[in-house]
Amino acid sequence: AYWSVLYPWLLAPMLAVFRPSLRWEFPVAHALAFPVLLLCICAFEFFWCSLPRLREQSGNRSDISSIPSWQMWVLGYSFFIWLLVGDLITAINPDLCMTTVTLFSAGLLTRTVSMRDARPSLYFWFGLSLGLGYLVKAVLFPMGITFLLIAVLATTHSWRERKWHFVSTALIFSLIAL
Predict the structure, then answer these.
(1) What is the Cα–Cα distance from 32 to 52, expressed in whole angstroms?
(2) Dist CA 162 CA 82 (whole Å)
């Protein structure tokens, strides 16, 4: 469950550039966590901005739809900060990278489902993020397949026009995983 190819690829250049002594290796590894943290915040913002589109497009007026958007923002960012401060920031492992890729993939998933005329580049980025997710942590391989199946099954409009986009997404994901 902890296998990762991408995290050592990110850590190796940091160690090669700074050439820290044994005492400074751990702080240099923590320095890598800062740009990953910034990317994680951007990925969360991307995901959280995608949710209102999906909420509006679904047209389902359930109890959760009656919650004002500002309360949803407070709830979402509170949970995100609790998640980061609780476990992810202090550890030197690929979990923060995994969270970043998962949030970005979830944002792309909601956009592919909610947009009627999604650009082909959206599907390219979706396949790329699923493939990078597998490289970040092996557990994201079955999650990538699950995300792809959800995207296919949740798309109710213009399936015939989009089927080649989903095939290209699956192909990109498969090529990176191979």
Answers:
(1) 32
(2) 38
Closest by CA position to 18, among listed 32, 8, 35? 32
d(CA 79, CA 15): 33
Contact predicate 144/131, CB 8 Å? yes
- Separation between Cα atoms, residue 108 and residue 38, nearest integer Å: 18
- Burial label for 152, CB within 10 Å (0-12, 13-18, 19+), is middle
Q: What is the DSSP letter of 88?
A: I
Residue tagged 């850590």 (tokens) = 11
pTM for the model:
0.85
Tokens of 97: 């990278």
Q: How far apart are CA 155 and CA 109, in angstroms?
A: 10
pLDDT (tens digit per residue) in 93-126: 888 899 999 999 999 999 888 877 778 889 999 9
* Pick from 136, 137, 135: nearest CA to 174: 135
Q: From its phi and psi, is residue 167 left (phi > 0), alpha (psi between -120 and 50) or beta?
A: alpha
